[in-house]
Amino acid sequence: MQIQINTDRHTEGVEDLAVWARGVVEQALSHASDRITRVEVHLSDQSGDKSGHDDKRCMMEARLEGRRPIAVTHQAATMDLAVNGAAEKLAGAIESILGRLRDQRHRQADPLLDAAPSPDER
């Protein structure tokens, strides 16, 4: 899994922030890292030099093998909260997609599952 970190010109401590954010992404997506080819992380400070409520923004886009990219965004008061929030959202979105794919394969492997009567039909 390749992780690319991008920041705007208002973001401070880019080197340390990039190393830390990469670790957060690796940990959050470790359960699916073999299915993810690339993750792009975009960090920005929406209000620039001025401070504002929830002005730190993190957008993450993951590319799963053979699938369209998945993107999430999280805004928070600190970059720490923004990155962790986006990583959590992205992990949930990926797990949801992978769960649906597992269900599809399971149904295709056992066509009787789709043909079984519902409890109301018995």
From TrEMBL:
<protein>
    <submittedName>
        <fullName>HPF/RaiA family ribosome-associated protein</fullName>
    </submittedName>
</protein>
<dbReference type="Pfam" id="PF02482">
    <property type="entry name" value="Ribosomal_S30AE"/>
</dbReference>
<dbReference type="InterPro" id="IPR036567">
    <property type="entry name" value="RHF-like"/>
</dbReference>
<feature type="region of interest" description="Disordered">
    <location>
        <begin position="101"/>
        <end position="122"/>
    </location>
</feature>
<dbReference type="InterPro" id="IPR003489">
    <property type="entry name" value="RHF/RaiA"/>
</dbReference>
